[in-house]
Amino acid sequence: MADKIAVGGVSVDTRHWIGGRRVASSGTFPDVSPIDGTTLGEISRGTPKEAASAVAAAKAAFPAWAATPRAERARILHAIADGVEKRLEELAIVETTDNGALLRSHRRGVMPRVAHNFRFFADWLLSLDHDDFDTFPSGGSAAGRGHTNHVSWDPAGPCVLITPWNAPLMLATWKVAPALAAGDTVVLKPAEWSPLTASLLADIAAEAGLPAGVLNVVQGYGAEIGDALTSHPDVRRISFTGSVPTAQRIAASAAANLTPLSLELGGKSPLLVFADADLELAVDLAVEQYDNAGQVCLAATRILVEEPVAEEFTRRFTEKAARLTQGDPRDAATDVGPNIHPRQLEKIDGFVQRAVAAGARAVIGGHRSDGQYYAPTLLTDVAQDSEIVQEEVFGPVLTLQTFADEDEAVRLANDTRFGLAATVATGDQARADRVGARLVAGTVWVNCFFVRDLQAPFGGSRQSGVGREGGTWSFDFYCDLKNTVTAPKGWTDHG
Ligand code: NAD
Hints:
One of its GO terms (molecular function) is oxidoreductase activity, acting on the aldehyde or oxo group of donors, NAD or NADP as acceptor. Belongs to the aldehyde dehydrogenase family. This is Betaine-aldehyde dehydrogenase. Keywords: Oxidoreductase. InterPro entries: Ald_DH/histidinol_DH, Ald_DH_C, Ald_DH_CS_CYS, Ald_DH_CS_GLU, Ald_DH_N, Aldehyde_DH_dom. This protein is an alpha/beta fold and about 500 residues long. It folds into 2 domains: about 5-265 and about 460-485, 3-Layer(aba) Sandwich (Aldehyde Dehydrogenase, Chain A, domain 1); about 270-445, Aldehyde Dehydrogenase, Chain A, domain 2 (3-Layer(aba) Sandwich). The protein has helices at about 50-65, 70-85, 90-100, 105-125, 170-180, 195-205, 220-230, 245-255, 280-285, 305-320, 340-355, 385-390, 405-415, 430-440, 470-480, and strands spanning about 5, 10-15, 15-20, 20-25, 30, 40-45, 135, 150-155, 160, 185-190, 215, 235-240, 260-265, 270-275, 300-305, 360-365, 375-380, 395-405, 420-425, 445, 465, 480-485. A 7-stranded mixed β-sheet has the order 16-17-18-15-14-19-20, sandwiched between helices. Strand 19, helix 14 (about 430-440) and strand 20 form a beta-alpha-beta unit. Helix 3 (about 90-100) packs across helix 4 (about 105-125). The protein is globular. The chain binds nicotinamide-adenine-dinucleotide. Nicotinamide-adenine-dinucleotide binds near residues 164, 227, 250 and 266. Nicotinamide-adenine-dinucleotide binds near residues 189, 222, 265 and 267.
C-alpha cells in the first residue's frame, strides 16, 4: 500500500492519524472516484485495534487540551481556518474527485464554510460565559439568602465523530470545530466512500499547532470499527451524521455506557408551493433540490403544489430542469454530477422503478444516464403512503403531489416519519407564519432554501435526529454543564 497518493495533483496520506503519527493497518480498502470509476488509491482499513488506540490517544491528550486556556484554543482553531483557506483549492479538487460534488460549489461555498466553521466556534467559545445570578433575588419567603449560581461549560472528554460521504469535510468540521473549541479531544471516522479530506484536515491541524492526540482520524468501514468506537467506555460524546439504520445501531451500542448522542439523520422534506407564491421563485427552489445529485439530507424531495397552479408550476419546472447540464463535476458548466457509488445508483433506480410499477409517471427522467449518473427525475401520480413518498431516496428524484387547501398541505407535509426541514413558498406572510407553526421540522425555510447560520440550532425532529447543534447548542452538547451554587457565608479569609 502506498502511504501517499496523488489526487488531482494533491498528495494525500492514506493512513490513519493517531496520537500525532501516521499509522497503517495491514489491510486496505479501495477508494474509487464516482466521476469515472477510477481507483484513487488503497486506504488503511481500520480494525478495532486502531479504533482503540485512537480513543486511547484522545484520552491521553484530553487533560492538557481541556486545561489549555480558551484564548489559546481559539488561536489554534483560527490557525486551522487559515490552513483551510491556504489549501482551499487543494481541498476542493480532492473532495470533488472523491465524492463527485461540484468543484465550483466546493471552491465558492463549501470550503470557505469549512474555514468558517473553525472561526465561528473559536469566537463563540470566547463569548461563552454565563453571568452569575442570585437565587430567589426578587423577594418572597425564600429571598435574601444571597446565594449565587455560576454556570460553567466544562470539557466533556474524548468524542467520537462519525460522518457521511455527501458533504464530507463540511459535515466533519461542523462537529470537529465545536468539539475542539469546547476542550474535548476527537476521534473522527469519515465515510469509507469519501475518506480523503479528513486526512488532509489532520495535516492542516498538525501544521496549525494542534497538539498530538487532540484530533485523531481513523479510516475504515463503519461495520468493522464502528462498534469499537461507539461502545468504548472512555468515549464521552458521540456525534453522528448519517442514516437512520446506522443511528439505531450506534444508539444501541452507546447504551452500554449511556454515552450521550447527537444524531443528524435522513429526511423526506416537503416544499409547499401555495398559489399565492412567486411561481418563478418556487420553481427555482424546486430545481435547486437536484443539487449534489440529490444527495442532500435537507433536500425538499416532496413537492406539494396548490391545485390551481399545479399545471403551470409543472410546465415551468420541466422547462427549467431540462436546461440542467449533467456531467463531470469538475467542469464549470455542470449542474448535476454523478452519484457516489454503483450501489447507491442501484438503490436510486430501484426506488424509481418500483414507484413506476406502482403507477407513478416520470414527467422527466426515470432512468440512469451514462456512467454513474442518474437523470434528474420528477414523479407524479404517487400515493401518500407509497414507498417513494415515505422513504429517503438520496438521489436526484423528486415527487410532485397537489393539495386543495392549507390543512391538506400541512397534513401531507407532516405525514412521514421524518422531520428534518420544510420549505414554504408563499406570498402571504400571515400564511407563512400559520403554516410554519404547524410543520414538524428542525428547520423551516420561507421563500428560501439551504440558508444556514451557525448561530442557529440545527437538527431533525422525529426520526431525522436527536438533539441540536450550532451556536450554544453545540457547546451544551460537547460540554458537561455545571452549576456552582455559593453561599454568602462561610468564608474564613475575611481579607
Ligand atoms: P451511513 O449511515 O451509511 O454511514 C454514515 C457513517 O456511519 C459512515 O462513516 C459509516 O462508515 C458509518 N457507519 C456505518 N455503520 C456503522 C456502525 N455500525 N457503527 C458506527 N458507524 C457506522 O450513511 P451514508 O450513506 O454515509 O449517508 C447518507 C445518510 O446521511 C442519509 O440518510 C442522509 O440523509 C444522512 N445525512 C444527514 C445529514 C443531517 O445533517 N441530518 C447530513 C448529511 C447526510
